[in-house]
Specification:
two-stranded antiparallel ribbon
C-alpha cells in the first residue's frame, strides 16, 4: 500500500540526479528555500510539456519563494534533452533507477503502468508537506493552485 503523504506529513528525503547528472538531496534543498516537487509521467508528452512550460514561464514570480523540481522515471539523458528543448531552467530529477523508488515513497507511482502520476508536493524549510495534489496522468495541474499554495507559506 502506498504511503499517505498529506499536509503536515514529513516529506520523505531522497537523493536523485538531475538532467546534468548532478545529485540533489531534498534535505539540503529545503534548508535554502521551500521546494515544489512536481512528479510527471514522461518527458516530451504534450501534457507534461505544457505543465513544465507553465512552471518555466512562471518562474520569475516563483524565484525566491520556491524551487520547482520536476521528477520523472525518465533516464537522465532523456531529461537533459527535454530540458534543453523546452528551455526548462530548473532541476529535472531522474527516478529511473531503482525504478520509481522516490515516486513510491510519495505514493504517486503507478505500479501497473510503471511510471509516476501527476503529484505535486510543496515542502517547507522544515521538510514538512504544506500542500499537495495528486491527479491522474490525463489531468493537468493548474498553475493557479501552486500560486495559491505559495501564498499560504507567507
Amino acid at each position: 500500500m502506498p504511503p499517505d503523504i498529506t499536509r503536515g506529513s514529513a516529506a520523505p528525503d531522497f537523493e536523485l540526479r538531475d538532467q546534468h547528472g548532478q545529485a540533489h538531496q531534498l534535505a539540503a534543498l529545503v534548508k535554502v528555500q521551500p521546494v515544489l516537487l512536481v512528479f510527471f509521467p514522461f518527458a516530451f508528452t504534450p501534457t507534461c510539456t505544457g505543465e513544465l512550460g507553465a512552471l518555466r514561464d512562471a518562474q520569475v514570480n516563483l524565484t525566491g519563494k520556491v524551487l520547482p523540481i520536476g521528477i520523472s522515471c525518465d533516464p537522465v539523458s532523456a531529461l537533459r534533452v527535454f530540458a534543453e528543448q523546452e528551455e526548462l531552467n530548473f532541476p529535472l530529477l531522474s527516478d529511473f533507477w531503482p525504478h520509481g523508488e522516490v515516486s513510491r515513497r510519495y505514493g504517486v507511482f503507478l505500479e501497473d503502468r510503471g511510471f509516476a502520476t501527476r503529484g505535486s508536493f510543496l515542502i517547507d524549510r522544515s521538510a514538512i508537506v504544506r500542500w499537495n495534489v495528486v491527479n491522474s496522468p490525463a489531468d493537468a495541474r493548474d498553475l493557479a493552485d501552486y500560486v495559491a499554495a505559495l501564498a499560504e507559506l507567507d
